[in-house]
Design brief:
EC number: 1.2.1.38
Helix content: 25-40%
Bound molecules: NADPH dihydro-nicotinamide-adenine-dinucleotide phosphate, N-acetyl-L-glutamyl 5-phosphate
Distance between the termini: 35 Å
Keywords: Amino-acid biosynthesis, Arginine biosynthesis, Cytoplasm, NADP, Oxidoreductase
Number of helices: 12
Structural class: alpha/beta
GO cellular component, one term: cytoplasm
Function: Catalyzes the NADPH-dependent reduction of N-acetyl-5-glutamyl phosphate to yield N-acetyl-L-glutamate 5-semialdehyde.
Number of strands: 14
CATH topology of the largest domain: Dihydrodipicolinate Reductase, domain 2
GO molecular function: N-acetyl-gamma-glutamyl-phosphate reductase activity; NAD binding; NADP+ binding
Number of domains: 2
Largest sheet: 7 strands, parallel
CATH architecture of the largest domain: 2-Layer Sandwich
Shape: globular
Strand content: 15-25%
CATH superfamily of the largest domain: Dihydrodipicolinate Reductase, domain 2
CATH class of the largest domain: Alpha Beta
Length: about 350
Amino acid sequence: MIRAGIVGGTGYTGVELLRILALHSEVAVTTVTSRADAGQRVDKLYPSLRGLCDAVFSLPEIDNLAACDVVFFATPNGTAMQMAADLLARGVKVIDLSADFRIKDVAEWEKWYGMQHASPELIVEAVYGLPEVNREAIKQARLIACPGCYPTAVQLGFLPLLENSVVDAQYLIADVKSGVSGAGRKAEISSLMSEAGESFKAYAVAGHRHLPEIRQGLQLATSETVGLTFVPHLTPMIRGIHATLYARLKQDVDLQALFEQRYQNESFADVLPVGSHADTRNVRGSNRCQIAVHQPQGSDTVVVLSVIDNLVKGASGQAVQNMNLLFGLPEQQGLETVALYP
Ligand SMILES: NC(=O)C1=CN([C@@H]2O[C@H](COP(=O)(O)OP(=O)(O)OC[C@H]3O[C@@H](n4cnc5c(N)ncnc54)[C@H](OP(=O)(O)O)[C@@H]3O)[C@@H](O)[C@H]2O)C=CC1
Ligand SMILES: CC(=O)N[C@@H](CCC(=O)OP(=O)(O)O)C(=O)O
């Protein structure tokens, strides 16, 4: 059995990890941390886990985690970078759901995240955990940087176009909507029901911290310089990300065949039939990214619709997909759920 620890077990991605790992036959969750709830039984805070998890929250200290084979960080940005080096030195693999190790350019990371990086030497080694791109490197890694939720939906939607050089890479537009759980469980006025409910708004139009991450991933897929406009929006739903992506085609191409071919061997990237409209409720609770590709009225604009559950393929499901690869397990293990509908 793989002994897994979760730092930040009370947050949304932490409890989603607990939900997925509770039914994973090769994993025992041995340590779950919370500073606020240390000493409490996990299933007291989350009764959905009764009979499935007998852990008690402990403090996020290295000694409490050192006996694990793998530790997931489901913590705010700036936490994993303080603890990862000590865990790696003790032979523990680290899967970070935060942004601490995603961006290779340290100065760029520090600019967008507004803090000094505590372990820049580990950034070089960290593998960006998007299995549809980095599968082989993930298998050999000690430290995995799981992609952000927006970056997962946007990259999976744009990659087939850029890898095949069929669009002008300089003019990419990502118009993306997220459910409120994307902001985490912490108390925030903007996440209150009376603020986020019955309302719909764009935010961070001037620049969102996922922009450099998405740009970095897309740039690796093309020799052209990538130009990207990314506008996130908050929608009054709990889970889900819907990315509407626009690009200018450079040539005639069978877009449907291009996408189907790119993802034909992928369990978690599902290209929908011609004319489909991707819908977040068809991926709610599942690790799938569903993608639909359109060329409205035969114009030279390609429109890609890409949907994920931000807490599953956008975070904890993808983290478990990475863990499976890291430990030589079937990639789908523990992730073969069907979306909740409606
Ligand atoms: N929500 C989403 O859809 C996605 C989130 N992410 C990223 O995953 C990470 C977790 O997000 P989310 O679950 O939403 O966050 P939450 O705010 O819901 O939870 C954060 C968790 O971290 C713990 N924590 C906070 N500060 C520290 C600290 N300094 N040291 C140790 N533990 C700490 C908290 O517990 P306590 O304070 O009791 O210790 C809590 O359990 C973030 O980096 C987020 O950006 C990535 C993709 C999608
Ligand atoms: C709706 C909402 O507020 N979303 C969050 C995205 C959170 C997230 O996933 O952040 P990281 O991927 O960087 O860890 C935001 O825009 O800040």
